[in-house]
Amino acid sequence: MPNLVVLFLLSTFWFAGIDPVVEPEDNHRKNLKKYLQVQRKIVDNYVKPVNLTDIYKSSIKGLVKNLSDTTMQLKGTPLDTTFQDTSLKIADIREAYTKFEDAYLYLANKGPKENLTKRTEDAIQNIFTDLDPHSVYIEPKEGERIEAEFEGKFSGIGIQFDIIKDTITVVTPIAGGPSEKLGIQSGDKIVKIDDSTAVGYSQDKVISTLRGPKGSEVDVTVKRPKTKELLSFTITRDEIPLHTVDTSYMIDDSTGYIKINRFAGTTHDEFMKAMEELKNKNMDQLILDLRHNPGGYLSQAIAIAEEFFEKGTKIVSTKSRHPRFNSVYYSRRDGAYIDHPLMVLVNEGSASASEIVSGAVQDHDRGLIVGQRTFGKGLVQQQYPLVDSSKIRVTISRYYTPAGRLIQKPYQNKDRKEYAYELYKREDNAAVDVREFIDQVPDSLKYKTDAGRTVYGGGGIIPDHVIQRDTTQSAAIYNFMRRKRLGFDFVQDFLNENGDQFKEKWKGEFDKFVNEFAWEDEQAADFRQLLLKNGMVEADTVDTARYKSDTLYVAPDAWEKSRWMSLGYMKADLARQIWGLEKYYQVYNHELDRTLDKAMRLWDEVEKLHKLALNQDSTQPESKAYN
């Protein structure tokens, strides 16, 4: 009971702005302060008015949903989730907090074995179910990882890894990182970290164990293929850059290509460095690949977009119920590349900041948007730290493209899983998906570009030129191979047997490798046997590839029709393990990317769009499907 008195006094101090000296057990003070912080940040910053009564009810439901004592009587107590008092109406934050505090303290007394920190997190997470799908609670460890990714660096040992058969397997050491400097190689299996076995580690545990402060040391024990003895390394952790430009290179004598995986703090700098290198190679036109780019920092998207526009061009605007979050962003100067023909590749994985860039390019008729309909995220979040290093991300405004489009897809009355999986309910045929979407867009969500072309809000960016993905049996076998990690295993076995000979022949001949290397028929046959051994079944009765449990059933001729895809991926993986991730993408694009291949035939469309923009002529047809 003394703890309850202390907590009562503490709550009074928090509202009065006084920091108490007493530190009660079980982090009660921290938990209740955290709950109060969350309430305040949501009420003070959320894009729409917040119903405090709903927030309070959701928090109580969350507080009790994972109780370890399932026999605890809740009815008629502060933990009662039936809320039989239908006149209940929370007037302000103080009342909401006080009522939650009553419930918390009741649980602290009646359930002394409950983990109150976890129950508080449950309560907070449940609050967010009343908000939009992009407003979230972020646990402390997850917050540290996300922060490192968006700062563009972290401290660690410098490897790309995968968990294969419960063992940490080095895919490739990061160039210039501490692991590469010590001689750790692709294919090495980390079996011990410090004095403990590393077999059975999850990806999260690998990251938390191998990352650490710059200058700190970690011991790893490695099993290397074709080497009997285990190898021991003491690795001094260092800063490892997290690049957001996956690759940049010249596709042909005049066309540059840049792939951006997200918009973090270093993205604009990386982009400009890549552009300068391409310019020095006589780039005349650019393909900017934003496929599977989920977004990131709004400021970085604006900085990159304005490189393609004249000073004073509107890039994006944000609107909120809070005037402080209302902004209009214009190009602050003439962009460095306003005269370069531009094509932007997008798909359903392109979201948020990616849609800001592609929306500005489309609304101003600056370049051709190519691919599939984008995700449809038009909400802007701000991150707020909490008392225990956890964070919350709260939607503070909506963003609008230069033409006035809100491209956010609907989310009202949908649970978060349904919202996320909406992508998988779209038509497999990208052109059909676009037609069906356009057919149901109301006139209020139709807008005009600068040149008078019709564009649409309410569900992502519709490409100017739609290109269909490969959904044939080729893709089914390819996906099966990747899910089972058979390609990686096959490449590893190949390098174990032929690595020295292969490197001697190709190491200094990357361009020649791209154009001339091909797996031999015998190697292709060996890989087919590997597929059959691991659950692929060829059956005369199968017309369309299908899964049953962990088995893939395909037609007898499916492998011959699809081998180009599997073998192309393994060629790209071979490049990754020899030359690194940047070269992987270059080979992958060359061997497998049919969207990029078809996009390269559309430069005449880019030219027509440029003339249309100059003439301000609205007679040009809008979205097309490419077959």
Tell me what you see in this structure.
The protein has 627 residues and is an alpha+beta fold. The protein has four domains: 2-131, no CATH class; 153-241, Pdz3 Domain, CATH 2.30.42; 245-315 and 333-375 and 403-469 and 603-626, Alpha-Beta Complex (2-enoyl-CoA Hydratase, Chain A, domain 1), CATH 3.90.226; 473-586, no CATH class. It is 41% helix and 19% strand. The chain is built from 22 helices and 25 strands. The protein has a seven-stranded mixed β-sheet with strand order 10-11-12-15-16-21-25. A hairpin with a 5-residue loop joins strand 17 and strand 18 (391-400). Helix 3 (52-64) packs antiparallel against helix 5.
Task: Produce the secondary structure layout.
Layout: H1 2-16, H2 28-45, H3 52-64, H4 93-110, H5 116-127, E1 136-138, H6 140-151, E2 153-156, E3 159-164, E4 167-173, H7 178-182, E5 189-193, E6 196-197, H8 203-210, E7 217-223, E8 231-236, E9 238-241, E10 245-250, E11 255-260, H9 267-279, E12 285-289, H10 298-305, E13 314-319, E14 327-330, E15 342-346, H11 353-363, E16 368-371, E17 379-385, E18 391-400, H12 416-420, H13 422-425, H14 430-439, E19 446-448, E20 454-456, E21 465-467, H15 473-483, H16 486-506, H17 510-516, H18 521-533, E22 536-538, E23 546-548, E24 551-554, H19 558-579, H20 581-592, H21 594-599, H22 603-615, E25 624-626
Parallel strand pairs: 11-12, 12-15, 15-16, 16-21, 21-25, 22-24
Antiparallel strand pairs: 1-18, 2-9, 3-4, 4-5, 5-6, 5-7, 7-8, 10-11, 13-14, 13-18, 17-18, 19-20, 23-24
